[in-house]
Design brief:
The chain has 6 helices and 3 strands; from the N terminus they run αααβααββα. By secondary structure, it is mainly alpha-helical.
Length: 129
């Protein structure tokens, strides 16, 4: 029996679902976006992704490397130099990530207005269901 892609993505135990979960993670989007600028060392990547701690960046990069989205190159220097770069699949994904970032910028004012309106309503008297 052949499972269609939508069914595969919706199954909690599927690889497709795991990949969707990884791609949907905020740190993943920001790391992919930063790596879109080219090869980066860990410390430079951490500077580019404001707010990420060392543990979370390491965890994100390991997951992306495992999924074939990022490559990790280690050079035998003192101290060791480690570079991260998008794979071909990562570059293709970067196109989608860039689109999501552009969509966010285009709709930021609308989203902020909607949030303000919602928060104002939520702070008022309870509304009947």
């Amino acid at each position: 029996m052949t499972t269609n892609l939508l069914d595969e993505v919706q199954r909690a135990d599927s690889v497709a679902r795991q990949i969707i979960d990884r791609i949907g993670d905020k740190w993943t989007l920001l790391v992919i976006s930063a790596l879109g600028e080219g090869v980066l060392r860990f410390s430079h990547l951490r500077q580019r992704v404001e707010g990420i701690n060392q543990r979370m960046l390491t965890q994100t990069l390991r997951g992306l490397e495992r999924d074939g989205i990022v490559t990790r190159s280690v050079y035998p220097t003192a101290p060791p130099r480690v570079d991260y770069e998008l794979t071909d699949a990562g570059v293709e994904l970067l196109t989608l990530v860039t689109g999501i970032c552009a969509w966010t910028r285009r709709h930021l004012d609308t989203i902020e207005t909607a949030r303000h309106a919602y928060d104002t309503r939520a702070a008022g008297p309870p509304q009947p269901l």
